[in-house]
Specification:
By secondary structure, this protein is of the alpha+beta class. Among the domains are: 30 residues; 122 residues, Alpha-Beta Complex (Cytochrome C3). The strands form four sheets. It has a two-stranded antiparallel ribbon. Strands 3-4 form a two-stranded antiparallel ribbon. It is globular and about 60 Å long.
């Protein structure tokens, strides 16, 4: 096997070589012989922690960092609603959320205002002056056992599961177990729905990797079009934008969501349905 030299190469190339070497080493250590299938292992992160975001731009004298559980909000709202209509950035601490902005009805305060209803019940107010701190720990819950109202195992008990990342959100939506809200009165703007493109195949850059099957329909349910285009994927002809697993692992393109919130990148067959590993 031709090995990758990392001497006198840029830092990014060095990082890619190390990743490639680790992947190759893992495959050869796992495979007893050629032609056998390597089954990717589930992520080390516990399902209850998958997609957890810690917002640490809090005041030193305040109640501490905020913990945001994607599994709780994803069961109720689409990704597009929060990241497009409300305007949350895709990176932790990049939005500039503050107690003041929440009180003014922005960010978390767009829903958490003590007035907006969900399932007929008001959503508690974020950073309200009237709470006297009684609800603060529900969000500012880092290292505070028992502060959260909802428990992952109890909340997701009836939802379909996936070996790789906990809840199978696509199956949950398809089976009607969840019905994520995609419109927020006073925030969202009603637009005519766009016609979803059909599933299509993306040719892999390596001859021994089967094509990717991409579904616009499945992604549009959660993301709409705006969340992916044009910031993550430029609006260009199919296969005119070159991306790779290395770029995905770095958090670009598919990696902006997959491996962080959506199913992880080691769930190979979810994108390459003909199998997780192929040989010539």
């Amino acid at each position: 096997m031709r090995m990758c030299s990392i001497e006198n190469r840029p830092r990014r190339t060095e990082r890619r070589c190390r990743i490639a070497a680790s992947i190759c080493a893992g495959l050869f250590l796992t495979l007893p012989g050629f032609g056998q299938v390597y089954l990717p292992q589930p992520p080390v992160t516990q399902p209850s922690d998958y997609g957890k975001v810690v917002l640490s731009n809090h005041a030193v004298t305040g109640p501490g960092p905020v913990v945001f559980d994607h599994w709780l909000h994803r069961a109720r709202f689409t990704c597009r609603l929060c990241h497009v209509d409300i305007g949350f950035a895709m990176q932790a601490n990049a939005t500039g959320v503050s107690a003041t902005s929440n009180r003014q009805g922005f960010h978390c305060g767009a829903c958490h205002d003590g007035k907006r209803l969900f399932n007929g019940k008001p959503i508690f107010a974020a950073c309200s002056d009237d709470t006297n701190g009684k609800d603060c720990d529900r969000c500012h819950s880092l290292d505070k056992p028992g502060a959260r109202k909802y428990d992952y195992n109890t909340f997701t008990a009836e939802l379909p599961k996936d070996t790789f990342y906990g809840v199978d959100w696509i199956a949950a939506e398809k089976e009607g177990k969840i019905k994520p809200v995609d419109f927020l009165e006073g925030i969202s703007v009603k637009t005519a729905p766009m016609e979803a493109r059909k599933d299509f195949s993306i040719k892999a850059r390596l001859s021994w990797v089967h094509p990717i099957v991409f579904s616009h329909e499945k992604h549009a349910i959660w993301n709409g079009c705006e969340l992916c285009h044009p910031e993550i994927f430029p609006t260009a002809r199919k296969e005119s934008v070159e991306f790779s697993m290395f770029l995905n692992i770095e958090g670009r393109y598919c990696g902006a969501c997959h491996g962080k919130v959506a199913f992880p990148l080691n769930h190979c067959s979810a994108c390459h349905p003909q199998g997780p590993l192929w040989v010539p």
